[in-house]
Structures are given as structure tokens and as C-alpha cells.
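hey
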């Protein structure tokens, strides 16, 4: 029985590889990457965070791809999106911001897809996205505190206190870096994670027939 189970698991893995590396799989990845890149240009600020924090929905196609083709597809789509933005828009942070954004994006998409692919149902998808959002918020806070904010302060030639003060102007309760992270960054990432998850769960079943051969029961 153990040998039979191992064989089934091995076959599933091989089938997933075939799907991911097939012509159709690569086409799906390319299309979703392009859509994700375009969505990066449509962002809006949130009332409780400084204006340089703006929400976009470019991770929706990434999450769709990860649900359809597996977590690795999500990583590839996220990477292509970031590389396209880096090549066409350039960088003000010597690539540090782009690397951090890639990691933060994967923090949402990969856990969500890993949980979903244990049992591809709507309920599991919801559990996956809750898990992904929690990881997304945690990783986002850490990277903002120790990588992104220090990098932006250095690039723009201003002390960290100046960035924190921008948060204080939006929310007077923000005092110091800890307050900035927990009262601006964490809520921002939470809103984004929930919004991306809700949009994905609403549209996935409708668009999955277009991804023929990868239609799952979300």
C-alpha cells in the first residue's frame, strides 16, 4: 500500500510538472504575468497610510496562476512581473525594493496555493488565503522595518524619522518605527491581502474554464 501511495504521489508531481512546462502552461503563465504587470500601474492610496503606500491588485493574476498551476507557477509569475517592472520602469533602490516586493508577493501566494493544493475545494482555498494573508502581513512588516524603510530613507536622503513623520501626519497615534509598522504597514498589508483574496475567490471559478485543463473546484 505504501508503494502504491508513493507511486500515486509521484505521478501527481510528474503531471504537475508536465502541466507547468507544457506549451499551454507557459502560455497561461505569460498571459497572467503580462496582466499582473499592467495592474501594477493602477494603484490607490489608503487613508491610514502615507501616500507612498498604494494598493494595487497585481497579485490577483499571480494567485490565480498559483491556484491553477501550483505554487511554483505563482513564483514564476511574480518573478516575471517584477522583472518586467524593473526592466521597463527601472529602479530607485538598486533592486532592493524589487527583491523585497518579490518576497512579500510570494509570502501571500505560495502559502495560499500550498494549502489549496492539499485538497482543491472552495473551503480549502479560503483557508489557504487566510494563511497566506497572515504570512503576508508578517513578512511585509519585517521587510518594511528592516529593509524597505531603511533603503528608502537612504535613497531619498532623509532620516527614518522623516518617513515616520509622514505616517504621523496621517495618523497622529503613530509614534516611532514600531507604531508605523503596526498602525500603517500591518493594516495596509492586511487590507491588500484580504482584497486580493476576495477578488480571486470571486473570479477564479468564472475564468478557470479559459485555462483549459487546469479547472479546479474553487
Amino acid at each position: 500500500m505504501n508503494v502504491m501511495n508513493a507511486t500515486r504521489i509521484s505521478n501527481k508531481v510528474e503531471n504537475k510538472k508536465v502541466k507547468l512546462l507544457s506549451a499551454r502552461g507557459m502560455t497561461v503563465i505569460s498571459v497572467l504575468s503580462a496582466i499582473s504587470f499592467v495592474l501594477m500601474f493602477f494603484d490607490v492610496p489608503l487613508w491610514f497610510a502615507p501616500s507612498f503606500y498604494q494598493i494595487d491588485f497585481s497579485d490577483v493574476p499571480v494567485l490565480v496562476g498559483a491556484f491553477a498551476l501550483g505554487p511554483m507557477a505563482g513564483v514564476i509569475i511574480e518573478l516575471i512581473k517584477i522583472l518586467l517592472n524593473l526592466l521597463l520602469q527601472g529602479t530607485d533602490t538598486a533592486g532592493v525594493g524589487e527583491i523585497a516586493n518579490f518576497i512579500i508577493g510570494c509570502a501571500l501566494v505560495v502559502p495560499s496555493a500550498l494549502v489549496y493544493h492539499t485538497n482543491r475545494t472552495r473551503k480549502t482555498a479560503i483557508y489557504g488565503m487566510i494563511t497566506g494573508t497572515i504570512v503576508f502581513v508578517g513578512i511585509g512588516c519585517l521587510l518594511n522595518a528592516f529593509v524597505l524603510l531603511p533603503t528608502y530613507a537612504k535613497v531619498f536622503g532623509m532620516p527614518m524619522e522623516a518617513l515616520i513623520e509622514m505616517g504621523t501626519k496621517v495618523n497622529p497615534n503613530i509614534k516611532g518605527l514600531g507604531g508605523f509598522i503596526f498602525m500603517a504597514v500591518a493594516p495596509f498589508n492586511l487590507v491588500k491581502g484580504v482584497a486580493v483574496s476576495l477578488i480571486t475567490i470571486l473570479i477564479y471559478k468564472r475564468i478557470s474554464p479559459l485555462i483549459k485543463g487546469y479547472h479546479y473546484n474553487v
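The beta strands are 44-45, 54-55. The CA atoms of residues 168 and 175 lie 7 Å apart.
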